[in-house]
Amino acid sequence: MSNTGAFPEEKIRLSKLMSQLGLCSRREADDYIARGLVFVDGLKVTELGTKVFPSQQVTLGHGAKVQQAGRVTILLHKPVGYVSAQPEKGYKAAVSLISSESRFQGDDSGLPFDPSQLFGLAPAGRLDIDSQGLLVLTQDGRIAKQLVGADSGVEKEYLVRVQGRLDAAGLQKLNFGLSLDGEPLKRARVDWQNADQLRFILKEGKKRQIRRMCDLVGLKVVGLKRVRIGKVKLGDLPPGQWRYLREDEGF
C-alpha cells in the first residue's frame, strides 16, 4: 500500500475518515455505509467498522448526495429567554421559534418552508439563555462539524455590554493569558467599541466563556449578542425571526 513519508499508513475506520474529510458526520457515515451509498476507490463498502487507508478515495453515492442536498440550515436571531438545545426549567427551546409565521420577510433563499425540516434540526454551537444573537440550526452534519468540531477554527464575533473598570493589563488578559477549567484559552481579539461595550472574536466556545472571562478581570456582563459566525453575519435579522442559509453563503 502507499506510504506517507518514511512511515507506512495506518488504517482507520471508514466512518472516521469520512468525518475528517467533511463528507458527513460519523453517525451519518455509518448510515450511508449500511445503505450501500459509500465507495472506496470506486468499490462499494457496506460493512460497518471497515477500516481503510487515509490516502484512499472515498466518495458518496447519488442517494446520499440527494439526501444531503435536501437538508436545510437555518439562521435564527435567538432572543434572551430561550435555550439553544433542549427546553429546561420551563423555558422554551429556540427551535420552537421556527415556523412559517416567524420567517424573515427578507429571506431571499428561494427555499419553501416545510415542517418536516424541523426533524433533526439541531444547534451547531450554543448561546446561553441570557444571551441573544445569531444561532445556527442545521440538519447537515458537515456544517455542524465545521462549526463545533474539535478542530474548528471558525470565528464567532460578539458585542458585549459590561459594567466595571478595565485597565490596559485587564484588556490584554482578555486577548490572551486567561485559563478556564484548568486549560489556557486560545488567543482572542477583544477591543472596546464604546464606553461600555466590548467586541469579542473567539475561535472556541467553552460554556459561558465570555461571562467567565469577564469575571476574571472584574467585569460584569449585562448584555451579550453574537453578531457573526465565520463569514455569516446576523445583519438586520430581527429577534425571534429566522432565514435559510443561502447556497452562495458559507461559514
Q: Structurally, how many domains make up the residues?
A: 3
The helix/strand class is alpha+beta
Q: State Rg.
A: 21 Å
Largest sheet: 9 strands, mixed
Given this structure, which CATH class of the largest domain is correct? Alpha Beta
CATH architecture title of the largest domain: 2-Layer Sandwich
Produce the secondary structure layout:
Elements: E1 3-4, E2 7-8, E3 12-13, H1 14-20, H2 26-34, E4 38-40, E5 43-45, E6 51-52, E7 58-60, H3 62-69, E8 73-78, E9 82-83, E10 92-93, E11 122-123, E12 132-138, H4 141-148, E13 156-163, H5 168-175, E14 179-180, E15 183-184, E16 189-194, E17 197-202, H6 209-216, E18 220-229, E19 232-233, E20 242-244
Parallel strand pairs: 9-10, 12-18
Antiparallel strand pairs: 1-2, 3-6, 4-5, 4-7, 8-12, 8-20, 11-12, 13-17, 13-18, 14-15, 16-17, 18-19
Helix pairs in contact: 1-2
Overview of this protein structure:
By secondary structure, the protein is α+β, with helices and mostly antiparallel strands. Strands 8, 11, 12, 13, 16, 17, 18, 19 and 20 form a 9-stranded mixed sheet that branches. The radius of gyration is 21 Å and the shape is globular. The protein starts with a strand and ends in a 7-residue tail after the last strand.
